[in-house]
Amino acid sequence: MVASLPAVLELRPRTAREVEVDPALIAMLDARAPLTVVRGPRGYGKSTLLGAWLSGGGPGHPVVSLALTREANDAAEFWAGVAGALEAAGVLQRERADAAPAPAGDTDRLRVLGALGGRRTPLTLVLDSYHHAGRREAAAEIDDDLVELVRQNDQLYLVVATRTMRLLETSGSLSVDATIISPQNLRLDAVAVAALARRLGVPVSGRDAGRLAEGFGGWPAAVRDVLVRSRSEGGQVNLALADEYIASMVRDLRHEAVRSFLLRAAVPEEFDAEVAQLLAPQDTTPQILRNVRAAGLLREEIRDGRRTYSFAPIVRQALVRMLAESRPDELREVHRILMDHHARADDHLRVLVHAIHAGAWETAERVLEQQWHHIVTEEPVVLVAAAQLIPPEVVAAHPRFRVAREDVTGSLPPGGDRPPAPPWRTGDIRGITAEFAPQRTHGRVDPTSVALLQWGVAAVLAGDESAALYAFGRARSRAQEPGGNPTSARLATVGLALTHAIYADADIAARWLADPVLAGADRPDHEDHALVGPWLAQAAALVALDRLDEDLAERVAALPQRHRRDEVWALSVLVSALHASLDGGPADVARWAANLRAARHYLPRGGLTEVLVRTSEVEVLLAGGLDAAARKAAEDLPVSVVSVATHARLTLAAGDHRRAMARARAALEMPGLTQRSVMECWLVVAAAHHALGERVPARAAFAHAVRAGESSGLRRPFLVIPRGVFTALAGADPQVLAMWPAGLAPAHDAVAVGGEELTEILTPRELEVLQALHVHAGAVAVARELGLSVNTAKSHLRSIYHKMRVTNRAEALRRAEELDRSAQPATVAGGSDE
């Protein structure tokens, strides 16, 4: 018991000379509040702070200090220790032998209360390690006595340093003015860590100082311990040295329940009160959680209305390593508990991670089989990290473990950087990926190739073209090895073709379709026709559509009927609708737009396929001249790499040329645009400049579109602009003119007149408004006929008058007649212009 040690008027702290103390904390002590509580776990610098404060002058009046030990758990020993310290300091007279007896065990308490309560000059009482003062009811009584002393005597100042939150802090601060120096105040930040490292002579960069501060949660003694040990190792900061400090702290804990809680609660990255009770199923767990949190060992956050806790990263790693080395069976038990907990919450990724740590291989394989498409696209880093923990013999027996360990690893960026998240969620595509399963392929595709093919499909729908090509490429390479499977090779090859087709590399897709491995696979009598044929038909139709090949109609007619309403079926509807919009009449356009609108309802909202279907609906309506319906279809279409070109086209169709240009140019800055979208955006810019009479920038933008078309083989995007505008911008270049597909011209193109076409002057919607002016005299009537708002009709009329260099309706109609009279023989739509 410290009572036998001499108490002093100045505190002589047990602290190192090379410490770093925040001057703001000294200022808080200098404020001389009646009650000051310094609270923090072991090693948070409480004694160091008090020592620095007192050695620097302290409060400027007498100080009596006492460091308590565990013997102070007994209330009588506590009061005896305080009495001894006050006697040694001359504040309390030694008890006379003839003094009146006090109640048993209460003598020292009454003497202390009397001496301190009657103090008439300032005195500060410092009690270090105050968490030892009493237990249970006795602790509360000691707190009450001390608070009452401070409340009644304004000459008495009480400073305590403790590891736990007590009534002295909670209730006492309601009775008297109090200064609370919490663990958050005591933590070291990166600047303080760097300053401490300089004192210790350890070279630490700003980045390493930040890692130390963050990794330890600012724990001063732990940071100092690592720095001191690193100094003896040549000055290189070694974070692994933290384990010894943390282990020593855990071993010194008095209660096994607290020790077990810390070790088990460190296994999850974060937890809440429910998980804490699962990990440490005992009655005292809520109290332990409160105490550990109050001590500052846990970070606390409110997330989605749920209070969560977590250890600092390095502290957590040390605790988990200690549990693994000293109690490996208990570690596996904790992982099984967490595995079951996350399974109830349908958190498949965490189920997988904990199943692997627990050695529950069947559970891990089942999760991967059911959720492979989500995990491999959305959490590849976690998947790879988890796969590295699996023993080699287990990996060899589970194909998806093998793919994760050998193949997914190779798709990640070098250096361990986390790849960007894919732009789309894959949705529930188990029906699609099941088509490659061994039971559907009758064993013609091995399980490892199945996993690679399913990964490729999932990556396509997640918007990760690079991962999709990598996965299909790995499957093809595997199938072409000696003893490889030809069916796997065909599926992988058609996967490569379809990926390039979806992402608008039409010529590359066509080359894959022409690969010898696919020869004859489109014939009904081919052994793999039932498996490969539908995907082959999809890819071929999409390539023919984008290139506007002569056999497009044949390719579209060959699309197989699919009974499952999924992404693949929706892609067939999309291709058929866009084909119909090329030369179909208004009835066909309206019918296919309705089909696309209906197809959206079968798809997950916000997925890549759903957005493709929605943008195609807008494109079909624009091609049919139904601009108002197209705008309505795009009302709640979110802006994305797929839809930005569509929004720019709608703005162009509305006659707002400057805004259309701005939207298209902004879209071109977005990463991840396909060549199809790039072409459409440049063509919008070109058409807008052309409509404004700005021929030089129009031709420059058009040249960008032409280069994109030449490199990709795309031709369909040219239909964004009228045939006349295309011809005008192409000039006399025969190679560029040949890029317009023979026999195709949008139905709304006007005839050629006198070397200049109205389509070179006006947009398709403006041509409709001009036509309506022949019948109607004002904007109101024109708007009613065309289904526009009056303001939109007025905007179109102003644009028409400006472009035709007229000021009113009569002049516009007269100018149109002049152009008509000077017209050369009209070019029939679909005929040759040369």
From TrEMBL:
Molecular functions (GO terms): DNA binding
Gene3D superfamilies, per the entry: Winged helix-like DNA-binding domain superfamily/Winged helix DNA-binding domain
Originating species: Georgenia muralis
Every HTH luxR-type domain range: 755-820
Protein name: ATP/maltotriose-dependent transcriptional regulator MalT
InterPro entries documented for this protein: Sig_transdc_resp-reg_C-effctor, Tscrpt_reg_LuxR_C, WH-like_DNA-bd_sf, WHD_MalT
GO biological process: regulation of DNA-templated transcription
